[in-house]
Amino acid sequence: MNHKMKLLVFGIILVLFVGCGSSAPSEQVELSVSAAASLTDCMNELFALYQTKVPEVSFISNYGASGTLQTQIEEGAPADLFFSAAQKQMDALEEKNLLLEGSRKDLLENKVVLIVPKDKTGIASFEDAAGDSVKTIALGEPSGVPVGQYSEEIFTSLGILDAVKAKATYGSDVRQVLTWVESGEADCGVVYATDAAVSDSVTVICKAPEGSCKPVLYPAAILKNCQNPQAAQAFLTFLSSEEAKAVFEKYGFSVL
């Protein structure tokens, strides 16, 4: 074999070797997502949908009150993305420089509603929470649960906060509030419209009066200590896609 032929054969072998290397399976990536409890159902569906498109990405989910998740992140708990049910908790993390710069985005809007156990009568408005027909009302703990903070805004605007607090029982997140109303342990409760929509055991009485609380906006952001920022950004981008929008809207969220 002459010198030119040897070079040609070597070149072909090199091309084949490089080509085989490029087709090797992508490295598996695990993303840890801390998300508000009210996002549980839709995020589980979105994780599964995303994995059909990007099978090398898997997820660890951590659902809870946004205030609890904020505290966990501040204390160093591993998380790649944070999806909050209110601006307050995201603002706190941003002020402490714990967010990846430029990654924060408002994705969703929700509504606050008053619910009662299915078929219960005698309650027709938020104002009725202060009346004799309500012995116990389930609310989110206002120190760390956004729906509890919105609830206090609403009852303050109606001038009945003190009367409502006297009969309130406080849940650690919005899903606990929902559970108490479903079981009849509470005469009524304040949750998000999306939480009420996933239950067959409660009735929505009404939405919060217009202007009685801040808009219920859901921001998402990548954490600064994220181990896989490129994969996290790709998933965050997916959450703004038309496919993700359809899932969010199915669960009652408004997509911004």
Q: What does the model show?
A:
There is one protein chain. The chain is α/β, with parallel strands linked by helices and 256 residues long. The protein is 40% helix and 23% strand. The chain has ten helices and eleven strands. The strands form two sheets. A six-stranded mixed β-sheet has the order 2-1-3-10-4-11. Helix 3 (66-74) packs parallel to helix 4 (87-95). It is elongated, with a radius of gyration of 24 Å. The termini are far apart.
Widest beta sheet: strand line-up: 2-1-3-10-4-11
Shape-level CATH architecture of the largest domain: 3-Layer(aba) Sandwich
CATH level 3 topology of the largest domain: D-Maltodextrin-Binding Protein, domain 2
Count of helical stretches: 10
Give the CA-CA distance, first to last residue.
68 Å
How many strand elements? 11
Q: How would a crystallographer describe the biggest sheet?
A: 6 strands, mixed
Whole-number mean pLDDT:
91
Write down the Rg: 24 Å
Total count of domains: 2
Strand content: 15-25%
Based on Cα principal axes, name the global outline. elongated
Instruction: Give the helix level as a range of percent.
Output: 40-55%
Which features characterize this protein?
6-stranded mixed β-sheet; alpha/beta; 5-stranded mixed β-sheet; 256 residues; single chain; 2 domains; D-Maltodextrin-Binding Protein, domain 2
Protein topology:
Elements: H1 3-22, E1 29-36, H2 40-53, E2 57-64, H3 66-74, E3 81-83, H4 87-95, E4 105-110, E5 112-117, E6 137-140, H5 146-157, H6 161-165, E7 168-171, H7 174-183, E8 188-192, H8 193-197, E9 202-207, E10 216-222, H9 229-238, H10 242-250, E11 254-255
Parallel strand pairs: 1-2, 1-3, 6-7, 6-8
Antiparallel strand pairs: 3-10, 4-10, 4-11, 5-8, 5-9
